[in-house]
């Protein structure tokens, strides 16, 4: 027989919360387990001639990731669907569910040419080159 007994109701509060402290703890747990907590960490490094953006997406399949650059805004989106094979199983505790998360970073001088991305070991690495400004200087003679 299992010893794990879920004590939370649908709304995340214990049915027998005996004190205000229990109720506060339950509501804090509920807030920490919300969709917002599904956001993934992102590191952005300026490499001089471009940027290297790393998104830590442990357990996410490559096909569930979307990366876009739109007018300097790099967006990384994840859409994870719950496995359909879970129906009919007798879970004692189930914490995984479908979720979506998007992180964005503004790179003011990002170039849309030469972008690259690779995904390995749960880390998405996006390389974004910077726009190279051409300085056309013309010497003007004075009469």
TrEMBL record:
Official protein name in the record: Hsp20 family protein
Family that this chain belongs to: Belongs to the small heat shock protein (HSP20) family.
Domain called SHSP: residue spans: 33-143
PROSITE patterns to which the protein is assigned, alphabetical: SHSP (PS01031)
PANTHER family: HEAT-SHOCK PROTEIN 20 FAMILY MEMBER
Listed Pfam families: HSP20 (PF00011)
Source organism of the structure: Collinsella aerofaciens
InterPro entries (UniProt xref): A-crystallin/Hsp20_dom, HSP20-like_chaperone, Small_HSP
Organism phylogeny: Bacteria, Bacillati, Actinomycetota, Coriobacteriia, Coriobacteriales
